[in-house]
Design brief:
Number of domains: 2
Number of strands: 5
Oligomer: single chain
Radius of gyration: 44 Å
Structural class: alpha+beta
């Protein structure tokens, strides 16, 4: 099967055609560096100079795709040119082949050619002087340096700059890719945080609304219906306020708004009172020192969501909430009656359990929830930073 050569670059075609036309013009005008009678001219025929010229111009077509082969053929052609009256264009084309071999060739060729041409330059300068005892022999070394060493060194410098620019471009692309990955992760984390906040803040109110609306519709007692509607109104107003605050955070210019107070463990009493107003029998027991703000917020949200789930799913009975500091962690435990019932008092999606697990994981803690006998138990362990603080008071609510 015939080997198909790669298509030459259009710039290489221009160089080859331009060099060939320039050499033909000098040949037609009879301009050459040597005369037919010079001792080094072995082929004095006027047409002999065209053979190296055509070969060297043809090698220009391979300078980018086959730089090593082009340089070998060009070396043979320029050597043959020295045996004719010569053509300046052939020498110029050879210097370009040497430059291209270093620039477009393999890494090994790019490293070796400057050293080889430098050695040839030294030999070309030293040997003629040593043999002929004539300082003019240095001109041979100078000619080799101009024809071979200078283009090879130039190609090496340009190649290094090109490789450095390519490395810088790759680094810039990698930096941009890492920045985009960081941005995507940040957006995803922020969306997850907002989803947790939206669920924890609004779901509690909406669950209470759904439960008391059902009670108001199913009971014929005007007093009970009035109480249910009061609870519905209260939770509707609270839920609407939370929604407006979250929407304000998401809007442009939210930084101008006064930040909402972050819930703290001191607010667990109020949270328990709200759950009792919604019909839960809640007891609260806390025994801990001051804890870091992230742990405080996570513990508050876990208790809040656990009370919401108890309101929707638990059987009638006592719901116990306890927070205990031990061995460098804050242990959060919420239990509620568990067992079969006609169905949840309000629909659920399971997002609350996911949010509680995420909050614990973000702090390096653990979370589990599931039945333990006749109780449904939610437990989270949240690591605490070492520090001291005054213990908070223990609050208990008897049955």
């Amino acid at each position: 099967m015939a080997v198909r050569l790669p298509r030459p670059h259009r710039d290489d075609v221009r160089i080859a055609v331009g060099g060939l036309l320039g050499g033909l013009l000098l040949w037609a005008l009879g301009i050459s560096p040597r005369r037919p009678g010079d001792p080094v001219v072995l082929w004095p025929a006027h047409w002999a100079v065209l053979v190296p010229l055509v070969v060297t111009a043809g090698c220009e077509l391979l300078r980018r795709t086959r730089p090593k082969a082009a340089l070998l053929l060009g070396t043979a052609a320029v050597s043959a040119d020295t045996m004719t009256v010569g053509s300046l264009v052939t020498v110029v084309l050879f210097t370009d082949l040497m430059y291209a071999a270093v620039l477009y060739g393999t890494d090994a060729s790019a490293r070796r050619l400057p050293w080889v041409t430098g050695l040839l330059t030294v030999i070309g300068a030293v040997v003629p002087v040593a043999v002929w005892r004539d300082p003019r022999g240095l001109l041979i070394g100078a000619g080799v340096g101009v024809v071979a060493l200078a283009p090879a060194a130039t190609g090496w410098v340009v190649r290094n700059h090109r490789d450095a620019a390519e490395a810088a471009r790759l680094r810039a692309e990698q930096t941009a890719l890492l920045a985009e990955m960081d941005r995507t992760q940040a957006v995803t984390a922020e969306r997850a945080r907002m989803a947790r906040e939206l669920h924890d803040l609004v779901a509690n109110h909406l669950s209470a609304i759904a439960i008391h609306a059902t009670a108001a519709l199913s009971l014929g007692d005007p007093k009970t219906s009035q109480e249910s509607l009061t609870v519905i109104r209260h939770n509707s107003v609270e839920g609407l306020a939370e929604m407006r605050r979250l929407i304000g955070i998401l809007r442009d210019g939210a930084a101008d708004r006064a930040p909402a107070a972050t819930p703290t463990l001191d607010g667990l009493g109020t949270l328990a009172d709200g759950a009792r107003a919604n019909g839960l029998d809640v007891t609260l027991d806390t025994d801990h020192r001051e804890v870091p703000a992230p742990v405080e917020l996570a513990a508050y949200r876990i208790v809040q969501e656990s009370l919401t789930n108890a309101l929707k799913h638990a059987r009638p009975g006592r719901v116990s909430v306890s927070l205990t500091e031990r061995d460098g962690v804050l242990d959060v435990r919420v239990t509620s009656p568990y067992g079969h019932r006609g169905g949840p008092r309000a629909p659920g999606s399971g997002a609350g359990l996911v949010g509680m697990r995420e909050r614990a994981a973000l702090l390096g803690g653990t979370f589990d929830a599931g039945p333990e006998g006749a109780l449904w138990t939610v437990r989270a362990t949240l690591p605490l930073a070492e520090g001291t603080g005054r213990p908070t008071s223990t609050e208990g609510d008897p049955a």
